[in-house]
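Example 9 (inverse folding). The structure is encoded as follows.
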């Protein structure tokens, strides 16, 4: 049976740090009289002396130091648990978890969340980021309800819905891309820092179908696991990249970028939503609608 309350532990910790009852009381926001009563009650419950006067100071006994030392180690854990419990209790009981990887265009992400909440107003949409190779596993394990990603994912018996057709585009700082109407070539990246969300060459993407085929490569490649951050870095002249057009059009920086097409050698692919079988179909439809709305808006602009 625990004899002391947290109030007693807190007082003894404060006494160990501040050495006077008045200072400890001020730290805890209580009166000196209340601190005295709290100390005496702790001693009564334990049946031992916890502190003795030493001049103007109040010195902890060996027993008091034992409790105070344990309190220093334990109280932060208990307070954190209380804070966690409060925030968890504020959470909507009905949640929909959407997971993203390094494909995280700001405007599209906001629209995905907004449309899901419009379609399912009784559900809170929670957004989490995971490594790209763990998106499918997050849905399969039940840790997430929805994930969206480009290309055809290998799915362990999970449903998928095609939501958009897309293409890769080359992205340069404003004024540094190919001339208007000119198709981009690997030589346009010569001597530039290439910002990419993955350094492992994969078949069917830019390394395989663009750089390798053209036998020309950027001077340096840097891994940045966020398409939104890549767009921002390119807009500030820190390099160039090749990204899905959805990520560029829906970033926060399209006006500060030069976007170049691949011409006849366009690299096209589909975006998919993968979802748990229990995911409401309204959420899947909402994400599909968000993609469509985004592409229509970009086309008009």
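The amino acid assigned to each position is listed next.
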């Amino acid at each position: 049976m625990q004899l002391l309350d947290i109030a007693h532990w807190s007082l003894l910790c404060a006494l160990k740090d501040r050495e006077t009852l008045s200072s400890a009381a001020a730290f805890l926001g209580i009166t000196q009289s209340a601190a005295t009563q709290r100390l005496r009650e702790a001693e009564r419950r334990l049946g031992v002396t916890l502190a003795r006067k030493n001049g103007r100071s109040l010195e902890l006994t060996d027993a008091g130091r034992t409790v105070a030392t344990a309190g220093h180690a334990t109280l932060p854990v208990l307070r954190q648990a209380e804070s966690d419990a409060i925030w968890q209790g504020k959470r909507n009981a009905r949640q929909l978890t959407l997971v993203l990887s390094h494909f995280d265009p700001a405007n599209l992400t906001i629209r995905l969340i907004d449309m899901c909440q419009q379609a399912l107003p009784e559900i809170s949409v929670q957004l989490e980021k995971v490594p790209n190779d763990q998106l499918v596993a997050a849905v399969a394990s039940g840790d997430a309800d929805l994930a969206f990603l480009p290309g055809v994912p290998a799915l362990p018996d999970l449903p998928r819905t095609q939501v958009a057709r897309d293409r890769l585009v080359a992205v340069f700082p404003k004024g540094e891309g190919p001339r208007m109407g000119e198709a981009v070539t690997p030589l346009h990246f010569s001597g530039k820092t290439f910002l990419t969300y993955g350094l492992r060459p994969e078949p069917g993407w830019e390394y395989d179908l663009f750089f390798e085929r053209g036998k020309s490569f950027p001077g340096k490649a840097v891994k940045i696991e966020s398409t939104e951050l890549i767009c921002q870095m390119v807009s500030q002249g820190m390099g160039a990249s090749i990204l899905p057009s959805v990520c560029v059009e829906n970033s926060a920086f399209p006006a500060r970028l030069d976007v170049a097409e691949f011409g006849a050698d366009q690299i096209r692919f589909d975006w998919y939503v993968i979802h748990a079988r229990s995911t409401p179909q309204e959420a899947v439809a909402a994400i599909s609608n968000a993609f469509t709305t985004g592409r229509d808006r970009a086309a008009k602009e």
